[in-house]
Amino acid sequence: MPPWLNLILGDAGPWGHATQAQPPFILKPPCLSPPPRPHTDPWGHATLTQPPPPPPQRFQEVEEAHLRHMKGLIGSYSHSVEDTHVQIGQVRG
To answer: CB burial class (10 A; 0-12, 13-18, 19+) of residue 18?
Structure first.
């Protein structure tokens, strides 16, 4: 029986009978672990670092290229949907 349940039920056992006295529930302090150490490579190699962020102008160029590509994909999809609707109209008509 968990200790917190003993506090609620007192000394009653599983069928309501009195049980032997149990030691009181004692909270233990959390285990103190050493602070985390920075990562060190066991073979002594230099650790990899993040590359520096691209300059704002390069970011702008990449975003513009991405938007042009997405605009082309959406246009292609829209054209495909229109063609499908035309074909459905031809079958029903």
So the answer is: exposed
Comparing CA positions, the residue from 57, 60, 38, 62 lying closest to residue 49 is 38
Phi-psi label, residue 77: left if phi above 0, alpha if psi -120 to 50, beta otherwise = alpha
Residue 19 near residue 11 (C-beta atoms within 8 A): yes
Q: Environment class of residue 51 by beta-carbon count within 10 Å: exposed (0-12), middle (13-18) or buried (19+)?
A: exposed
Token readout for 8 is: 């609620």
| Nearest in space to 5 (alpha carbons), one of 20, 13, 27 | 13
The pLDDT tens digits of the residues spanning 3-37 come to 655 665 565 555 555 555 555 666 666 666 666 66
Structural tokens at position 88: 């459905």
